[in-house]
């Protein structure tokens, strides 16, 4: 049967990292007879298979034993092999062990020296996690049914203000650490502890020894010439290689910021993967439901059978898949896997005229199997196994508040499929096995909530047509996977959540009036959870189950016996609250309880789980599931967990929830932005440009929502509103950045606005991107334009990207204020026209150095509007590169083209020919030198404080 190599060793050889199956066995699961060893070349990262006889040089080398691979992480010119070094068995399904990842090693592939140090340190970590393991001895093969390594409970990833600088191979730099501690790092004494060797793996300033090259993030003891240890040791995440890629790599956009943030990325990657939230099995498909499991045919490898919707590390494994190293590809599932065995004591039938239900009414669940001895020997009993599997979708992944609602493809945030499987402990195929599926996911509308508010009010986005399209895409895909759909919304029917709930109902009604899904209507039940369960009476969620009993009975569950399904679940309950966490967890537990009771009834056992005090394990299993999903989305355990576990709610649970709420609030405003960038990058949804964006804004964009589509919609909307005359011909539209205050060049922050060009005027439109409305616009008649100026436009030098003279360009349109121009503000009232007095162009902050090119116009009547070009490459996509690695379309070319379009329209309107004196002039708007002069100490300080907190 095809499968994955269960155990392998990682060896740092001279010419590359060698991955070798432990014991020298060969893997034969692929289409070819794959070798049990492969090599990752240090220079090219090319993966090649080794002959069966190789390698012979393992003896005497530092080797790291791994239980599987997560993949190959590449950032700029760095590459790291991520391998599973510790695991814990959490379940067994049909004889196949299921493991949770509890620790990983991140090994650089830059050189043998760096790889060897990382392997040594990883072995030390493993030995510290398991005191019985000697890192210097060869560990015997560990049986699959025991725990490998000590579990490590890790919450959210800590932040670090590291600012390492990228260097290409060939540049004479002894180590990155010198740049970190040197003049390029502007952090003060407040950050001294953050930048200590203990926290970052950096050598202390006095301990720098350029003559002894050292990987700057390595904390393993280094040996001096006399054999003694040099420096002190501390625990770090990984070793960053001292030498990187070729010289051409440094010219790739985004590589500088990615390299600076690399230590933090590696830390987060390790914490994320070792957080007990990733699961795998070597020869069982965790990504598909029990009923969807099928015999693997021929030589099909495991990674080709899994559902890509839940194959978390597919992008990281792409290098191995492309190299046909199928035996090394271990699919990971993010979510939860838990399992409990329990025993049911069933009294013998009474000799009475009662119904079967009355005869068996005294049936009781004793608890988990270890409590079975408490059952009277004369009472018949049955043993069962309950397995809970939650599968978190890789579509629209991320953290709370930064991933809300729906994207353009209909994927919703925090989408999780949860399966509850009831079986006998030995999985005897002659006995019935039951599977019940549920789904949670964010409300399928475009909306957001501010992470900075303690109780943020949801804000809806985009037009009705755009929302309806995404709404329908979501439910059609859900129906394709599961059949009929019962949507359950648990949000409040008052205050901030009411508006979203009403829109949810509205779009569902429109959808159903249009025919629904293949003629089947979408069912939506709005259960006001907080109102129905007020007074901490969460047991009232049973009212929701009672309302949906008919639907639940119709949808049913899947029954499998002897490999065939005697009954299939034909529909699914899709549950949501605002976060799809706390209220959703309580409701899904109730639906799971309903399913378990019905499945036990099918076995002839009638029992009310809500009234049975021995079913604590069932509540605990669901509470553990809720905590796992909550930690993956909000970095804290789920609220209302005390009720889910104990069926009781008191003040202690409320106080605990308050602490978790405060912790979530802290993560919302501090940790989540970088965490989101890392998640998107690890899943392959964005390029390294996401780190450029984070360095500039300390925030990230949503790659699931098309920025180009939103901007084009803004241009179209602006055209319909601001161009009032049917005689004006629309010539072009662009979205650009503009200072917040008019008639200025550098009023921060810049806002994204819309620039429109017609045959009669230029329009500068300020746009509300949340509501898709024009807030105000200024119409500039062509006849009033006196000069168009374009060139370098640098507004900040805090990051390398912001100080780049080639990409930071813009244009300024100077014009004479007069009656032919107009300024209108949308006041949402009858009066919208505003005619302010002509604003005098002042010389504050030196922003009227441009007077020289205004050529004699009167300062009292001259105004100007400034625009800065948007980056041509978004964080989620690679730039358009030519064969030399340089962008084929530059921002300066784009700005020049806009200026020329405006000039042509002016000349055509005035009846002049192209030989007339040009009004377009190129020179710096704000040069790099000027920007440096204008950047004060306070601006540096504010940015550094922000970076210490966020980055």
From TrEMBL:
**Can you give the residue ranges of the SAC domain?**
269-635
| Composition-biased stretches (Acidic residues) | 133-143
User: Taking every annotated instance into account, which residue ranges of this chain make up the domain HSac2?
Assistant: 705-870
Which cellular components does GO assign to this protein?
endoplasmic reticulum
Lineage, top-rank taxon, reads Eukaryota
Give the span(s) annotated as Disordered.
123-166, 203-229
Q: Which InterPro entries match?
A: hSac2 (IPR034753), Inositol_phosphatase (IPR022158), SAC_dom (IPR002013)
Looking at the Swiss-Prot or TrEMBL record, what is one Pfam family this protein matches?
hSac2
GO MF term (any one):
phosphatidylinositol-4-phosphate phosphatase activity
- Give the record's GO biological process terms: phosphatidylinositol dephosphorylation
Entry protein name: SAC domain-containing protein
Organism encoding this protein: Penicillium cinerascens
């Amino acid at each position: 049967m095809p499968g994955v190599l269960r155990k392998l060793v990682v060896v740092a050889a001279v010419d590359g990292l060698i991955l070798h199956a432990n014991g020298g066995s060969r893997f034969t699961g692929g289409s070819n007879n794959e070798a049990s060893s492969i090599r990752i070349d240090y220079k090219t990262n090319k993966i090649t298979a080794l002959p069966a006889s190789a390698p012979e040089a393992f003896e005497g080398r530092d080797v790291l034993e791994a239980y599987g691979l997560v993949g190959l992480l590449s950032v700029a010119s760095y590459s790291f092999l991520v391998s599973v070094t510790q695991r814990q068995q959490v379940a067994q399904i049909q004889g196949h062990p299921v493991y949770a990842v509890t620790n990983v090693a991140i090994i650089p592939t830059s050189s043998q020296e760096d790889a060897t140090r990382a392997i040594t340190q990883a072995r030390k970590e493993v030995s510290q996690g398991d005191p019985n393991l000697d890192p210097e001895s060869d560990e015997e093969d560990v049986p699959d049914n025991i725990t490998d390594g000590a579990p490590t409970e890790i919450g959210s990833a800590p932040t670090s203000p590291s600012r390492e600088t990228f260097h290409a191979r060939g540049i004479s730099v002894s180590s990155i650490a010198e740049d970190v501690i040197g003049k390029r790092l502007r952090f003060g004494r407040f950050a001294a502890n953050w930048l200590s060797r203990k926290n970052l793996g950096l050598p202390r300033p006095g301990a720098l020894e350029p003559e002894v090259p050292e990987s700057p993030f390595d904390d393993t003891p280094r040996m001096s010439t006399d054999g003694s240890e040099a420096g002190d040791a501390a625990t770090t995440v990984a070793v960053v290689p001292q030498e990187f890629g070729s010289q051409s790599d440094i010219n790739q956009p985004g590589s500088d910021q990615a390299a600076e943030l690399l230590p933090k990325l590696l830390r987060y990657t390790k914490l994320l993967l070792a957080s007990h939230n990733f699961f795998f099995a070597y020869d069982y498909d965790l990504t598909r439901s029990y009923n969807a499991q099928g015999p693997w045919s021929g030589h099909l490898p495991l990674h080709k059978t899994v559902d890509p919707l839940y194959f978390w590390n597919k992008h990281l494994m792409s290098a191995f898949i492309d190299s046909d190293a199928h035996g090394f590809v271990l699919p990971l599932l993010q979510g939860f896997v838990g399992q409990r065995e329990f025993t049911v004591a069933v009294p013998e039938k009474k000799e009475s005229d009662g119904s079967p239900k009355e005869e068996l009414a005294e049936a009781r669940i004793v608890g988990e199997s270890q409590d079975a001895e408490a059952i009277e020997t004369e009472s018949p009993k049955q043993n069962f196994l309950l397995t809970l599997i939650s599968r978190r979708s890789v579509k629209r992944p991320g953290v709370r508040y930064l991933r809300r609602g729906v994207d353009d493809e209909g994927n919703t945030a925090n989408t999780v499929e949860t399966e509850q499987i009831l079986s006998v402990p030995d999985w005897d195929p002659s006995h019935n096995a039951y599977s019940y599926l549920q789904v949670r996911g964010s409300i399928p509308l475009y909306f957001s909530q501010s992470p900075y508010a303690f109780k943020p009010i949801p804000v809806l986005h985009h037009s009705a047509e755009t929302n309806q399209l995404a709404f329908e895409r979501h439910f059609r895909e859900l129906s394709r996977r599961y059949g009929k759909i019962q949507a359950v919304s648990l949000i409040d029917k008052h205050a901030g959540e009411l508006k979203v709930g009403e829109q949810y109902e509205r779009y569902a009604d429109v959808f159903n009036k249009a025919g629904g899904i293949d003629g089947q209507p979408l069912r939506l039940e709005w259960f006001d959870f907080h109102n129905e369960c007020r007074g901490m009476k969460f047991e009232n969620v049973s009212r929701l189950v009672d309302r949906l009993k008919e639907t639940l009975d119709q949808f049913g569950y899947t029954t499998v016996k002897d490999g065939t399904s005697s009954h299939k679940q034909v529909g699914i309950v899709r549950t949501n609250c605002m976060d799809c966490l706390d209220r959703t967890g309580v409701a899904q537990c109730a639906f799971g309880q309903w399913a378990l009771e019905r499945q036990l009834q099918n076995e002839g056992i009638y029992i009310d789980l809500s009234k049975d005090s021995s079913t604590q394990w069932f509540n605990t299993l669901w509470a553990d599931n809720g905590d796992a999903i909550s930690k993956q989305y909000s970095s804290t355990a789920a609220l209302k967990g005390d009720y889910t576990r104990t069926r009781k709610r008191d003040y202690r649970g409320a106080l605990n929830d308050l602490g978790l709420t405060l912790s979530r609030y802290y993560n919302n405003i501090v940790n989540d932005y970088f965490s989101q960038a890392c998640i998107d990058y690890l899943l392959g949804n964005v390029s390294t440009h996401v780190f450029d964006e984070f360095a500039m804004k300390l925030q990230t964009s949503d790659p699931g929502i098309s920025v180009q589509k939103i901007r084009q919609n803004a241009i179209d909307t602006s055209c319909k509103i601001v161009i009032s005359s049917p005689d004006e011909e629309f010539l072009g539209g662009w979205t650009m950045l503009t200072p917040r205050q008019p008639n200025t060049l550098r009023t921060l922050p810049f806002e994204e606005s819309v620039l429109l060009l017609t045959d009669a005027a230029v329009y500068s439109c300020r746009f509300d991107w949340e509501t898709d409305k024009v807030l105000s616009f200024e119409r500039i008649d062509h006849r009033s334009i006196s000069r168009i100026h374009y060139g370098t436009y640098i507004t900040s030098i805090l990051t390398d990207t912001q100080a780049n003279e080639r990409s930071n360009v813009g244009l300024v349109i100077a014009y004479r204020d007069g009656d032919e121009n107009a300024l209108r503000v949308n006041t949402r009232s009858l009066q919208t026209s505003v005619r302010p007095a002509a604003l005098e162009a002042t010389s504050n902050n030196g922003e009227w150095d441009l007077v020289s090119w205004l050529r004699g116009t009167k300062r009292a009547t001259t105004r100007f509007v400034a625009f800065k070009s948007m980056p041509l490459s978004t964080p989620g996509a690679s730039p358009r590169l030519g064969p030399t690695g340089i962008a084929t379309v530059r921002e300066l070319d784009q700005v020049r083209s806009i200026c020329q379009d405006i000039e042509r329209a002016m000349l055509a309107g005035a009846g002049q020919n192209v030989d007339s004196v040009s009004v377009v002039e190129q020179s710096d708007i704000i040069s790099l030198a000027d920007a440096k002069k204008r950047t004060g100490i306070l601006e540096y300080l504010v940015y550094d404080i922000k970076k210490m907190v966020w980055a």
